[in-house]
Amino acid sequence: MSKHFIETENKVIADSLKIRFYPIAVKSAKGTRITDQDGVEYLDLAAGWAVAGIGYGHQRVSNKIKEQYETLSFTSQLSAPEPTMVSLAQKLLDITPGDFPKKVWFGHSGSDANDCIAKLVPLEKNRSRMISFMGSYHGQTMGSLSLSGHPAQSRFIGSGNVVKIPYPNPYRPLFGDPKRLTDQVIDYLENEVFNTVCPPEDTAGIIIEGIQSDGGLIVPPADFLPRLQEICRRYGIHLIFDEVKVGLGRTGKWFSFDHHDIVPDAVVLGKSLGGGLPISAVVARKEILDVGTGIHLFTTSGNPVSSTASLETMKIIEDERLIDNARVNGEYFMTLLKQLQEKHEIIGDVRGKGLAIGVELVENRVSKVPAAEKTAAICYRCYELGMLVFYVGIHSNVIEITPPLTITKKDINLAISVFDQAFSDLEQQRINMDRVKEYAGW
C-alpha cells in the first residue's frame, strides 16, 4: 500500500515541496509513534521537524479544536478580531523577557515570521542593513531566505542588505582556535565587518539562532550570546532570536536564550507553537511591530482554530512539565549517545541542549571530513529498524534528534539500541547503499 501511494504521490506533488530520507507513507500518529499505511509503527525522533513538541494527537488539543471550530471556525483577525488570538498574545508576552512595551504579530510559519523581521526591523530603525550567520536557516520566503545562510537557499539571490558572518562552531572553529572562538568571532564582527562592509550606524538588527538548527545543531560557546548582546546594546542594534525550532521548551527552558540571561528585542516562533496546526509569531518591542498599519499581514493570521490549539499547547507544556522532561531526558539521551561515540569511530561529536541534539558523523576524527553519505545511510537504516530520524548540517552529516518533549527514558533506551544496530550495520556493510541514494534528503 505504501509503495503504491508513493508512486501516486510522485506523479502529483511537486519535487520543490519535498525532502525525503526514506520511503514512508504515514497513516496515523499518536504520542511518540507514527504508523505507516502498511500498519508498521515507528518511534519518531524528528517530531516532523520539531513541530510535534507535545507529541501527536494530544486529546486535549483535539477537543479544543473541535469545540472552537464548531463555535467559530474562522474570522479574519485583521478586521474582525476575537478573544483567542488576544489571549495567546498575552501568554506569549508573559513568557518572554523584557520590561519594555511589547506586542505580538501572528503568521503561519517560521518563514513568514522571519519575513516580518526582514521587513520591519530595518524600517523601524531607519537603517538599511541586517546581519545574520552562515549556516542559519530562517525560511523559504524571499525575506527569510535573504536572512538565511544555509545551502538550501543558496540557489536564490536574496536581498543585498544582509551580511552573513561565521557562527561560532566549537567543533569546526573557522578561525582555528576553539579556546578563543568567542573572542575571534566578536573581533571579526566589530573590527572587520563593522569597519568594512556593514557600518554599525547602518545596521538595524542581528538575527541569530541560539542553537543553529538546520546548520547542524551547533551550540555556541557559553559566553558568545552575552557578548553579542553587549555589542548590540553598545551600537543600538536590535538583537533578534529565531526560536522557531528550539523554542517553547525544547532546550530545557522556554527559549534557548534563557540559558544565558539574554533579553532579545524580538523573538520569532513557529513549528511547535500550534501543536501541529500552522501558526507563527513574533514577540517584539512595540516600536518594531507598530512601525506601520497593515504592512505585513495575511488573511488567516492568528485564526481562531490555530490560536486555540496554540493556547492549549502552551498549557500542556506547563501542566505536563514538558520543559523539565526535555532537560532531564535530554541529559540522559546525551549521556547514552556519548557512550555510543566511544564505541563507533564515525561519531565525531555529540552536542545539544535538552531535546535538541546533534550527532555529527565524520570519515575520520582527526581530519573531521564530513561523512554525508554514511549519515544518510544511518537515517535510512534506522527507518528500516523502526525509527524515524532526519539529518541536517551544511555538510549533510549531522543526525538531528528533536523528538516530542513527551519522550520517555524507555523510548530513549530503544532509540539508542536502534542507533547502535544501525552503526554496526554500516560498519559491517549491511546497508543497501543503492536504496539510500534514492533518498538523499538534503
TrEMBL record:
Keywords: Aminotransferase, Pyridoxal phosphate, Transferase. The keyword Coiled coil does not apply. The keyword Transferase applies. CDD domains: OAT_like (cd00610). GO terms for molecular function: pyridoxal phosphate binding; transaminase activity. Belongs to the class-III pyridoxal-phosphate-dependent aminotransferase family. PANTHER family: ALANINE--GLYOXYLATE AMINOTRANSFERASE 2-LIKE, PTHR45688. This is Aspartate aminotransferase family protein. It comes from Peribacillus saganii.
